[in-house]
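example protein:
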Amino acid sequence: MVNYSNSVLVVGFNTRPLAYSLKKAGYDVYAVDFFGDLDLYPCVEDYIIVLKELSVKYGSLKEKYSKFLVDFALRLHRKHRDTKFLLVASGLDDAYEGRKLILDELKNFETISVNNSLRTIMKSRDIESIFEFLTSQGYKVPLYCSFEKFQLFKNSLRYPFILKKKRSAGGINVFKIEDKKNLISKIRILEKLTFIPSEWLIQEYIEGIPVSCTVISDGKECEIISINRQIIGEKFLNSPTEFMYCGNIVPAGLLSEEEKIISEISTILTKQLGLKGINGFDFVLRGHHPYFMECNPRIPGSIRASEIVLNLNLLDLHIKSFIPNEWKNIKKLILSAKPRTFATKFILFAPNEIDKSLLTEINNLEFVHDKTEPIKNVLKGEPLCTILYEAKDFLKSFNGAKQIVDRISRIIG
């Protein structure tokens, strides 16, 4: 007889880090995952892997997988209908209809959703409203306008600027536009993929240090977990695009006045939007001034690095933040936890096609996670693995992770 009294169904693009922490905290984990990395399987009781179920390659699904995550989430929940909690990770950020299908399914069961409400997620992803609110409060945001109004504002924005989907994640659908010719060319390419002008934003290009802030809330009060350096579009990690999310360094090692403003904005927005659990905010730091970029109303990719440096199981705290009378203890744990070390997370992408025979050697390296199963070649641009390296200071952490990248580069030639 299966005991579901402390069980979690996790649904997302890469559930392995979450499943690892949940299992460590004593939960029985069920997962719907896109990749099916080798180190996911020891952490879960049952699973559905999108790529395996559909027998397709990563490239054919990488921007349209949300429907399948939803379908398989419904299937796995019906198989394990007494699962106590449902946690939606990255991959369904803006799939509102799919999320609604899952939430409607839960109404017939006792499974508790440990996620933000659909209304809260939609508010959190309304970037123009958030920009307007922050501007009214005296905080810095990039100059922006909807693509539809670009003709009216084009003299206010200088090249280069950013063309991005109003709702984007992980650096996908974000483009740096260098000049008018580049803009026309990009629009022509997008039109072949169904370009809907109302879904796109023109935004000032802010050159600086990308950072993020991770918070936890019970829907009323909020505490800062960590402020993190973001690693975006790095060539040494073979990033497929200029703005692709490639990892973090936690903590970010910023000046106290920079951290103060970032914490202030993140706390105000958490309360204003009504966010619950663990969520993330993205910024770019230019001249010691943080410019707000985006809200991610879900557990961010930096979570395992934060857990390492704080020596806390944050996934357990996330779930408990949805349970009445738990906040006092959560707040106490967060306030008493101080960063003991630094942790660097790298996502390494394949620089070219990598033969499956090389994967076992890569997977056996220390500090390597999200290990690709050695059953097929890894194609250029696909994620190969994650590296997570802890050290006593910022540089030792970064350089230690970089040495693992160098060792992998030698393996793949």
